[in-house]
Amino acid sequence: MIGDRMSQISSGSETGCSYPNRSKSADLKRNITYLVVSFVFAIVYQVPGWPNIFEDINGYPMVDRAVYENLLLTRNLVIDYIHDFTPIMYFTFEWSWHSLLAYLNRVVGLSADQIFFLITTFILWRFSFDVLTKIGWQYLPLLINPLVVNFAFSQLRTALAIALISFVWRGQRGIGLTVVIYILATTIHTAMIIFLICHIASHLFKNNNYFNFLALASIGAAIAIAIGPLREMILSTINDRRTDYLDMASSAAYLSFWILLLLFHGVIFKFRNRIMSLDARYSITILSIVAINILTGGYSTRFIAASFPSLLISMKDLGGNRSRMIFSIFIPYTIILWMYWFRILG
Predict the structure, then answer these.
(1) CA distances from 250 to 196, 233, 239, 301 (A)
(2) How many domains does the chain have?
(3) Within this chain, do residues 116 and 68 fall inside the same structural domain, yes or no?
(4) This prediction's pTM
(5) Pick from 134, 133, 141, 190: which is nearest to 161 by CA?
(6) Predicted confidence (pLDDT) per residue in 320-340, tens digit
């Protein structure tokens, strides 16, 4: 902003009305550049063929991706055998996701791989655009992470819903469109209700005091309990079909970096007179879910992957030496994750 104003002053223009036009032109050029760079990054990201690499390493395809492909090939989407949906069933049976797959495959004529390519491109574009616009291009390579790979190439339903919500959750659109997007995203994946709660909390508890840190952390803890010990009871109450889940818990060692990041944020909230960004406040809630999941056996990695841009932004938001320290730990941690992904370790 200061740079824009200085360039306006030094331009020597005598007409005041030319300054806003020049500023708008610069903003438009910058935004177009961000869009192009993030889109190119999303395409280049896919060049290695991560699903094929995963299958070569493990001897089986990415699990969720294979499930969606099988639903298309066998014509076993929800809309193929349920024709009368009650209002709640549009959410619990994720009608929009199945309708989208059916439309792209049966009407547009795209193959499963082509559909997945489009969805993955959209997801990676949104992730990279957020990182690029908030903290800069130099942090884009940090998106090349096993958690993001698994999320964007396999966990397509959750990832698509998160990518849609990224257009509105920071309050960058009007309330009407925001509500519509959240409803649409929840009919893609009902877990978006959880992220909605986290997003609302990050907007409400915005003052820089320790009470707000505790409030954000407590909301995350409550969510972890709800999706852990209380999950079966809650899903049964709303007649959700998925009351049984495989054990997807991660070890404390695997999640150790994220617990450390939560502690860093806690220290800043308590001892520093510093206003945290919206992404940092949101990250505190997500990281609190992760911390409690260690005790309850909840599924943490999907929360981390879904919030990955905000987590990176929150690391930068720590500021100064704290930010450099956390990134210096994050990079070797990421290398270790890759070693597990490639089965070099474990």
Answers:
(1) 24, 23, 28, 7
(2) 2
(3) yes
(4) 0.88
(5) 190
(6) 888 999 999 999 999 999 999
